[in-house]
Amino acid sequence: MDMKNLKWFQEVCRCGSITKAAANLFITPQGLSKGIKNLESELEVTLLERTPNGVSLTPYGECLMRYGEPMLAEYQGMTAELKRMKQQERGLLRVCSSYGVFRILGVDFVLNFEEENPGISLDYMEYPDSYVEREILKGNYDIGFGISPIPGEGLEVTPLFSSPVSLLVYEEHPLAEKETVRFADLREEPLILESHLFKIHDLVKESCLRGGFEANIIYCTSGFSLCHKLTAQKRGISVIVDRISDDMSKAGMRIIPIVDSFRWQVNLVCREKNRNDWHIKKWKSYTKKFMQKKGLMAENKSLIDKK
To answer: What is the 3-state secondary structure (H, E, C) of the chain?
Structure first.
């Protein structure tokens, strides 16, 4: 069975429309219809019925939809694994990270790894927090730096280091006179936070709920630097990660510790079944030594005995 046609069929099932599915797949409706007809010819059944409102599934189509989804997932998993194996043979290590982690570790973290391991080519990318574990589980990356909490079975999650989070306010704000604050102090305050794609978003909301109120989030940004910029413009106040913000301008602003706050926890994440691959073990060992030199390992000793 042609997996491309099966994928197209699944998209038609999801959209209920040839036209909508074709737009999502970036192909023409005519090309999509031809692919479905080829699938029907191969299986010798009619899968779809055209209606004034789009398409509906025949009983045969419903059967293929039930069996086709796991078949497609298995096929995609197999191709991702084959790709990973070929890349490993070439010495390619694919690393992904939540935004901000490489900023904390510094440029030498990547450059020194490549110098110390000339047989390994490094391919790395940064994403919003919630993408990291998903991309690793799908096999698109070998290992990465993810932010707690990290859901999903099949992952090895090793805590590395954490950072306090603090309140960022402009100097004229009433809270600017305080030495410390609690989340209860943020009731009704206009908050500028990173979007729900970042773990800090939900952690702040949960902390406010424990304080007895819903967070008044007025704007969700695409990154931590915009939180600083909008706070400096007095649009609102923000909750920031201390380590990420260490080298950012504080002119006209104050950073105030939140005494009942959570910590922003960074973890090393890889698929459990690949944890002993030679290039992944190299990355783990290198990360441990680098962090020890940087003084980050003092916060969490859990990686010391892991290779």
So the answer is: CCHHHHHHHHHHHHHCCHHHHHHHHCCCHHHHHHHHHHHHHHHCCCCEEEECCEEEECHHHHHHHHHHHHHHHHHHHHHHHHHHHHHHHCCEEEEEEECCHHHHHCHHHHHHHHHHCCCCEEEEEEECHHHHHHHHHCCCCCEEEEECCCCCCCEEEEEEEEEEEEEEEECCCHHHHCCCECHHHHCCCCEEEECCCCHHHHHHHHHHHHCCCCCCEEEEECCHHHHHHHHHCCCCEEEEEHHHHCCCCCCCEEEEEECCCCEEEEEEEEEHHHCCCHHHHHHHHHHHHHHHHHCCHHHCCCCCCCC
User: End-to-end distance of the chain based on CA atoms, in angstroms?
Assistant: 42
Percent of the chain whose predicted confidence (pLDDT) is above 90? 59
pLDDT digits (tens, 9 = 90+) for 32-52: 999 999 999 999 999 998 887
pLDDT at 304 over 80: no
Specify the pTM.
0.69
Q: Give yes or no for a contact between 15 and 48, defined as CB atoms under 8 angstroms apart.
A: no
pLDDT at 88: 60
Q: 131 Cβ partners below 8 Å, 6+ apart? A: 96, 197
d(CA 194, CA 240): 9
Nearest to 293 by CA among 152, 172, 113: 113
Mean pLDDT, rounded, of the chain: 89
Q: What is the pLDDT of residues 200-221, one digit of tens each?
A: 999 999 999 999 999 999 999 9
